[in-house]
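It is worth pausing here to work through a concrete case rather than discussing structure prediction in the abstract. The textbook approach is simple: state the sequence, then state the predicted structure, then interpret. We follow exactly that order.
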Amino acid sequence: MFALIQWTKEKKPRMGETEVLRVRFCAAPLKQGGPAFLQRRRCRRTARQLARLGITRAVFPADFAWVGEFAAEGVLPANPLPLYRAQAAELVQAAMAGRGEDPRGVPVAVCADRLTAEVRRAVTALCIRNRYVVLSAPDREGAFCRQLRREYGAPVVQAEGPAQLDRAGVVVLFAARAGLFRNQTVLELYDGGTLPPWLILPQEDGVLPEGCDRRQLMGALWASGALRAGQLRVVPEKAEERG
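Step two, the predicted structure:
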């Protein structure tokens, strides 16, 4: 079970349960206000309660400054990265549309340290939608690239140098890469990367709790099986509005 941390003005908030899209969350209201030392104490107390319940992941309020207090007790933010990686092809399609580029004519580059199952699924989905895919990842003797060319007729190639990456309109990073991609849209789908705020739920107003970190919440719903790919929309023009 995930916890849902929400600010409250109640003097003595109590834990309980709540549902979001039929997924049960441990509702952990957190009193807001007062000096920093008191807020830190409240966070530690709530985190210890969650830890005693065996809860190790939580959805925090947006821009929550006290994550470290919870992490010290073993309660970490819900991870949205698996959701974003599963939506890599849709994110690339939206990025190319935002750039005014045709996916049939502009290469997409995928960079990774290992050919994990997530990377393989993303590259396969990109090969179906895009005409050219450049893979910058260890591919023993080019076996994976050959498999994709054989099964999908996709001209996927293994990058032999930075020049091939420079020709890509969109670069998908499954691992951090040194250097600067000057003219490309870069999707940072790795731990510590900046995830694009493009994934939204249709008619999410009134469905998702107010004030929570949307990426964390959708990551929790995805991990719980409450979200499917077809339920999400990718809207890059919302990026500035949603921050």
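Step three, interpretation. The CA atoms of residues 69 and 175 lie 28 Å apart. Residues 238-243 have pLDDT under 50 and may be disordered.
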